[in-house]
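Thread: "does anyone have the structure for this chain?"

Original post by V.I.:
We have the sequence but no experimental structure in hand. Need at least a predicted one for the grant figures.
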Amino acid sequence: MNISLRKARTIIRKALEKGREMELKPLSVVVLDAGGHVISFEREDGAAPGRFAIAHGKAYGSVMLGMAGTAQMQRAEGQAYFMAAVNGVYGGQVVPVPGGVLLRDRKGAVVGAVGVTGDTSDNDAAAALAGIEAAGLTGEI
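Reply from O.Q.:
Generated one for you, tokens below.
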């Protein structure tokens, strides 16, 4: 099963709402399917233009490794050579920090990933989780 466009749009809308509620810097949010393909992306007014690549890298690493951003960061800290090799395998597209959230359906199957960037990594992850919960999915940070 993959995530629908409708759910992806809900995730983005609610993540951006949470960011405004928390008074975060302008956010960018991307939702990928289980194969790492972009389903939807939005960048708030005022967000830096390069934020797509960062949001994508957070989500892409999560879905391709089956490991959320927090776990990737811990792995990078403990096994820097491994994560450098992984990033090489994926063409430098992996950004191993919080804000990359693995998406699971109600049965626990991976259906995609969300990447949020713009504020601190922990705040990015909080915004992502708000969107994910609003869409009725489970997020693994």
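V.I.: this helps a lot. The longest strand covers residues 110-117.
O.Q.: and The chain has a mean pLDDT of 97.
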